[in-house]
Every structure is written in structure tokens, then in C-alpha cells.
Write a structure and sequence with these properties.
Blueprint: E1 18-24, H1 30-47, E2 52-57, E3 63-65, E4 71-73, E5 86-90, H2 95-98, H3 101-112, E6 116-120, H4 124-129, E7 137-138, H5 145-151, E8 156-157, E9 162-165, E10 168-171, H6 176-189, H7 191-200, H8 217-221, H9 226-237, H10 245-251, H11 256-267, H12 271-289, H13 294-300, H14 306-317, H15 321-333
Parallel strand pairs: 1-2, 1-5, 5-6, 6-10, 7-8
Antiparallel strand pairs: 3-4, 9-10
């Protein structure tokens, strides 16, 4: 029962609690998991009723560690569930390695039985690998978006905080799991309860599936100049087919020389250098997060010559693309 020092938010038509099964992958994100779980716990407390219950599951059935190193004891393995259950896969670092054949087969089986399935943080990768997102809208943490788009062309990837497409749900990581769970509480028990839960969490702005996950360009670059922000947005949207400085300048109604001065004044580098940094950053993500060949990574980042790509990459990161991939693979295996 709730404490006596706050007002209970009553809910109607509560017959039996809804059960969530949290499937914890190796190195899962603790923030995404705990945010989702706390919404359920506080909803029970604020309603004065047992609206939700939950179990922790995993492939081992015994224990699993989060990315912060804390070990969690599991309640169950990958067992057959009730059709009324909702599975929440909690991803994090190394999600591709954590998405084992046993796990994917179990997800496919439960999906065929009609179980609702959600993926937190990087777990959209697990769902997509199981074929559960084909033809559906989904989101994933922005750092993994490039590799996800390359690997799963049949999924309609968006950059929203969370996405609910039928009984398939995905979030972008971090606190976005709170937004998704607040939506589920509101859908089932009303906005009064979801707002009361948000108040308890000191969560002052509940986001919807229309909100984007990244900070705005002006906030990220620390400059509030509309034309500069627009040019950076165009650069980010044209990594595979880079635009020339002349084309960028023309799009915002200035000369190439004016664009050059704008970048040097606010970002302390030329437009060409800034653009190259963006392309190489994407290349590094693809090398470490996908199995794409180095040549295909180069093409995806606007380099038509592998030798030029390797030269630029070495100048930026003091290693070659091949060595970068090899050292990352060795570190992951260790």
C-alpha cells in the first residue's frame, strides 16, 4: 500500500496485474532498464494497487552483468511465456554478440504466439536480427543508427525517442525508456496516473514519439547561428554523397568565402575539415559496429578511393581502418 503522505491516483477496472519480462543481455544499459522498471514500481505505489509485476530473465537463467559491472540475479531463463506478457529486451554494449541464436529463436517463438516485444537502447538490433521489425518503424540509440541502417534495410529507422509500431516497441536508450513506459501506463490506466508517476520521478517534460533523441544542432555545436546550423544539418544528411563547399554556400545564400569565414569564426576550422571529421567519425562507428568491408565503409562515408580513405583515417586516428577493426575485435573478444 502507498504511504500516507501523498494522494493516491485511483484507477478503474483492475482485474489482474500486467506482467513484464525484462530480458537482460550481457553488458545491458543500467539506466534504460532501471528507468523502465521504476515507472512500473511507482505506478503501483501511486495507484495503491498491484497494476504491474515483473520478472528478470536471461539466457543463463542465473545472473548477468550490466555495462557498469553490477551483477543482477535472474528470476528465470528463456521460458515459454503467457500471451498476455510483454517482453522488454534490455540492450547495451556489444549487442550483436549478445544476440545469440538461442535468444533470437526464443524471440521468434514468443512473437509467433502474440507476445508484445520491446527493445531498450540497442536492443532494436536484437529484434531486427530476429526479423521482428521487418517493414516496421523503429529507433535505436543515435550512436548505433548508421550501423543499424546498413545492416537492416527492411526496417524503417527513425530518429525518435521511442517508437511503438503495433506490439513492437523500441527506444533510443538513456531516459527514453521512461517516456515509453509512461505512454504504456497512460494507454492502460490514464494520463492522471502517468503524470503522477512522472512527478515522482521529477520528470518535468514527458516526450512523445514525435520528439527526436539528439540535441539540436545549435546546442551540439555550441553556436546559435541559423545559417551555420543549416549547413551542418546538410553535411550530416549527405555523408555518403558529400556536397561541395560551393553547393553548401549556395543553399544558404552566401559566397564560399563567407562560408569559410563563418566556420573559422565559430568552429575554428574550415568547412572542408569539419565535413571530413563528420565522415571519418561515421566511418569509425561503422568499422567498430558492423562487419561491413573496409571498402564498403569507405563508400558509405563518401570516399571513392580506398587509399584516400585509409590516408585520411590514419591522419585523424593515427591508425589504419584495418588495424582499427582488428584491435576493436581483439578487445571485444577479451
Amino acid at each position: 500500500m502507498p504511504d500516507s503522505d501523498f494522494e493516491v491516483t485511483p484507477v478503474a477496472n483492475v482485474t489482474r496485474p500486467q506482467r513484464f519480462v525484462f530480458v537482460l543481455l550481457d553488458d545491458f544499459s543500467l539506466l534504460s532498464f532501471s528507468g523502465a522498471l521504476e515507472v512500473l514500481r511507482i505506478a503501483n505505489r501511486m495507484s495503491g494497487a498491484r497494476l504491474y509485476e515483473w520478472k528478470l530473465a536471461g539466457e543463463s537463467g542465473t545472473a548477468v552483468r550490466c555495462s557498469a559491472g553490477t551483477e543482477f540475479r535472474l528470476d528465470m531463463g528463456l521460458e515459454e511465456l503467457s500471451r498476455d506478457d510483454t517482453v522488454i529486451i534490455c540492450g547495451g554494449l556489444g549487442v550483436a554478440q549478445a544476440s545469440t541464436r538461442k535468444l533470437l529463436n526464443w524471440l521468434r517463438r514468443e512473437a509467433r504466439r502474440g507476445v508484445g516485444i520491446a527493445g531498450l537502447c540497442t536492443a532494436a538490433h536484437t529484434m531486427a536480427a530476429a526479423g521482428l521489425l521487418d517493414g516496421k518503424r523503429a529507433t535505436i540509440h543515435w550512436e548505433n543508427a548508421d550501423s543499424f541502417a546498413e545492416a537492416f534495410e527492411d526496417v524503417r529507422l527513425v530518429r525518435s525517442v521511442f517508437v511503438a509500431d503495433g506490439n513492437r516497441m523500441t527506444t533510443a536508450g538513456g531516459t527514453s525508456s521512461i517516456d515509453l513506459m509512461l505512454k504504456l501506463v497512460a494507454d492502460r490506466h490514464g494520463t492522471d496516473l502517468s503524470n503522477a508517476v512522472a512527478d515522482q520521478l521529477i520528470y518535468t517534460s514527458i516526450r512523445t514519439d514525435q520528439d527526436t533523441q539528439r540535441l539540436s544542432v545549435p546546442t551540439r555545436i555550441g553556436v546559435r547561428h541559423p545559417k551555420l546550423s543549416l549547413v551542418v544539418q546538410m553535411m550530416e544528411a549527405h555523408i555518403e554523397d558529400p556536397l561541395s563547399p560551393a553547393d553548401l554556400a549556395e543553399e544558404v545564400g552566401m559566397s564560399t568565402r563567407q562560408l569559410e569565414r563563418l566556420f573559422r569564426r565559430y568552429l575554428n576550422r574550415s568547412p572542408k575539415r569539419y565535413y571530413m571529421d563528420l565522415r571519418l567519425s561515421k566511418a569509425r562507428n561503422l568499422l567498430m559496429q558492423t562487419e561491413m568491408s573496409v571498402i564498403n565503409v569507405a563508400l558509405a562515408c563518401g570516399f571513392t578511393s580506398p587509399s584516400h580513405f585509409s590516408k585520411c583515417y590514419r591522419a585523424q586516428y593515427e591508425t589504419t581502418p584495418y588495424r582499427e577493426r582488428g584491435s576493436h575485435a581483439a578487445h571485444s573478444a577479451g
